[in-house]
Amino acid sequence: MRHLISPQDLSVKELEDLIVLAKDIIANPENYSEKCKGKKLATLFYEPSTRTRLSFEAAMLNLGGSVLGFSSADSSSAAKGESVADTIRVISAYADICAMRHPKEGAPLVASMHSSIPVINAGDGGHNHPTQTLTDLLTISQLKGRLDHLTIGCCGDLKFGRTVHSLINAMSRYEGVKFVLISPEELKIPTYLRTETLDENGIEYKEVRNLEEVMPELDVLYMTRVQRERFFNEEDYIRLKDSFILDNSKMKLGKPDMLVMHPLPRVNEISTEVDNDPRAVYFKQAEYGVYIRMALILTLLEDAKKSKEA
Ligand code: CP
């Protein structure tokens, strides 16, 4: 049974196949409107979400399938102490595929070990968010026309921001990609990512504190929210939350064809005045999330069918 737990579960070729399929879905949505007729997607969300859960649900509905699930741990039997392993055994009898978000790192991996349906990690703690990365790759591919030879600036909470961790893991596999990591000292990327992904693969990167000084170098600026829910104390969050605020004066320093991306939700880190700049593509990015999740659901269900037949 094939699952998607981390971006490395997909080869570069498989990433490309998903992007090609998503682009065909964008161009010819009518060809896909009944592809999942009779199939069910379960969305098991133990943590809040707007985009990921609803774009998964929209994706399955666009494919002609149905959806079921819960949107908080409190409204599921997790509140009574049920384990993820038991929950997924039960859900395997109710649905054909599931997307799981959980505050504990590794929970979707545990679920995949006890599941007889494909499990998709829809975000696990401060660890990974592979379908956000698929969304980001589709956005960059559509709007820049390539995924290689890009300088990508990641700005904000690089310690707890799982979307950045997954993006660095995925983009490190493309030729000529460089990273500029912009964060306060306390919110730098985790050591394992620096050593196991960037250093080990000889990826060019630098870590800086100042956004303005690197703006002219960037092809993509990936802004992130400071993740309040992962801080151990509120004082640290308040001290760090407004470390970087992108506004029109900073946008003047960027290349004319730079993309400003953000996984959303945004708090203060991008001033709303930036929304009208044609380089601000974060709402378009959220829209692309539906198409790439359609491609992923189709691909994993096809793989599951083949593995059952084998
Ligand atoms: N980008 C993202 O994961 O958004 P949600 O938390 O709203 O799902």
Tell me what you see in this structure.
By secondary structure, this protein is an alpha/beta fold. It has eleven helices and nine strands. The strands form two sheets. Strands 7-6-5-8-9 form a five-stranded parallel beta sheet, covered by helices on one side. Strands 2-1-3-4 form a four-stranded parallel beta sheet, sandwiched between helices. Helix 7 links the parallel strand 6 and strand 7. The protein is globular. The mean pLDDT is 95. The site of phosphoric acid mono(formamide)ester has 9 residues, from helix 2. Phosphoric acid mono(formamide)ester (CP) binds next to helix 2.
Terminal Cα span: 11 Å
Strand order of the largest sheet: 7-6-5-8-9
The number of E-state strands comes to: 9
Bound molecules: phosphoric acid mono(formamide)ester
Low-confidence segments: none
Give the structural class.
alpha/beta
Name the overall outline.
Answer: globular
**Helical percent range?**
25-40%
* Succession of helices and strands: HEHEHEHEHEHEHEHEHHEH
Helical stretch tally: 11
Arithmetic mean of pLDDT = 95
Radius of gyration: 19 Å
Major sheet size, sense and barrel closure = 5 strands, parallel
State the assembly state of the protein chains: single chain
Strand content: 5-15%
